[in-house]
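Working notes for the structural subgroup meeting. M.R. asked for a predicted model of this chain before we commit to crystallization trials. I am recording the input and output together here so anyone reviewing the notebook later can reproduce the run.

Input as submitted:
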Amino acid sequence: MIVVSDLVGTLTTGSPTLGLVSWARHNQSALRANFFLARLLPRYFLARIGLIDMRKFGEWSMIASLPLIKNATEEMVREMALWSVDKVMWPKRRPDVLGRLARHKEQGADLYIASSALEPAVAALGERIGAAAIGSPIEIIDGRLRFVPKMIEGSRKGEEVFKRLKVDRVSAAYGDTWADIPILERADHPVAVYPDARLRAAAVEHGWEILENTTAG
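Returned structure, recorded in token form:
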């Protein structure tokens, strides 16, 4: 039994990108981190009012945040990932959804977290719940971080999930946005978690379960 869950918006309302920024502010340069946030905020507000796509904003911010970490090492990336979970993602976790995954785990399921976020950050949260990570791999070149070969963006996430798992379907899947639809469509039990408008419409059309009123804890 294989169960796949999205990360941001599904398991947590915390942002791995803001976790990286937080680490950079406290461990490298507060000036660089604050300048990045100043660039980020106008785009964020445009995304909040619907003038730009929130998913695209998230992808842009993730790519733009990588240069904040200077002279990167494997140990530094690991430290940043754990910081991101401890300080940002875990405090804003969704207990209801995590409880679902825990029950799947008790029933013998293999859990996977699938996200466009940096794979080290996805893996760090996965360690908390006994899940493997399917994220955007990164490499270090001359102390700089970059995606390999590029970030797993949008609906490409579904392609990457089934490619890595080498299966055609999964037992259950959890997601919160339209980008998760390709995975939910190939799940025996698809669950739309606090869905955006496009995912909600798809869930209603297909009769998928909709899980709402989850709270951060």
